[in-house]
Amino acid sequence: MTAAEEHPSDFFLEVRNVTKTFGEFVALDDVSMAVRRGEFVSVLGPSGCGKTTLLRVVAGLEEQNGGSVWLDGRDVSREPVAGRRLGIVFQSYALFPNLSVLDNVMYGIRRSGAAGRRRRQRAKEMLDLVGLADQAPKYPAQLSGGQQQRVALARALAPEPALLLLDEPLSALDARVRTRLRIEIRKIQRALGVTTVMVTHDQEEALTMADRVLVMRDGRLMQFASPQRLYQRPENSFVAGFIGTMNFIPECRGKDHDRVGLGLYDVRTPAGAAADFIGREVTLAVRPEDLRVVRAGSRTEENVIRTKIHDVEFCGSLYRIHLQLLHKTGGAGNRRLIMDLQVESVEEMELAEGMELPVHLPPEKVLLFHDQALALSA
Fold first, then answer.
1. pLDDT class for 3, splitting at 50, 70, 90?
2. pTM of the model
3. Pairing of strands 318-326, 332-342
4. If you write DSSP's letter for every residue of 110-153 in order, what string do you get?
5. Which site among 130, 161, 173, 258 is 20 to 30 Å from 323 CA-CA?
6. pLDDT band of 4, cuts 50, 70, 90
7. Distance (Å, rounded) from C-alpha 150 to C-alpha 138?
């Protein structure tokens, strides 16, 4: 069942056609999204794209100029933060330095009306959930950055929020701690079943943690889909270039429903993919890991292009091969590609700068775009 086919009650959070401006600057331009109950959604994009503004509008920290925000079937567009039953974790942790870890977590449930003993018990339960039960008497300055962020998460979860909002929660931490914490946060979110929206500029974070990812650019929604679909079937060249690494070959031309011309080469595409581009200029795109070396004796003839190795870059677990496309009839062109190969393959074939290399473009991996300028100007 697609999102369009779902009943409105299937969605816990709905952002409907929200616009937000700051003077002449348009931070959000008619943005909509619908988040299912218990779903983990990441809002991803470059700096200044509007993702934090979107989170603040959902939280009630900013008031939108147009559109509405709905929580559990209720319009909360004009309600204050306190009326929205939110848990918020900020990049800066925002812990009180003069309170113990336990008291910091208890602070999050001070307005619940529960007795002091019950609040203390709940705080201890949350600290145990994030693996910090033994740190309860300490103060924030005595903890590592990763521990402080887990305290902030425990504090946000203590009041049993209906919606958890995470604003770049891991960006201030080093890479190893980030990797460990994103696994822990996802595990906790699944265990509690709390609907979660996380803002990040880190594509690896978004792809590994989220059920779906909303990609933004210049205040506009570019695509909202599962991580797998974003990577494999981007809807425009901005998403294609922003999610992972992509080869773009501009100035190709559609020839028929299933083929485009790349100079004198004919490149077959997925069935019908080129139908909208017949006789028109189109940009061909393919992932570096999807390119294949044509070995001697191979029977592969379709979608084989001649290239020359411009550089061989060692990247640890793989080699990145920089290629220069050669004209079909000989001579070097000005188009470049990159191809990712396993270390064993490169060493077995003894690939080196200056070698000619026939490369296969698998038809099912070829993507076509008419808007490659989006990718270049991002």
1. very low
2. 0.89
3. antiparallel
4. TTS---HHHHHHHHHHHHHHTT-GGGTTS-GGGS-HHHHHHHHH
5. 258
6. very low
7. 14
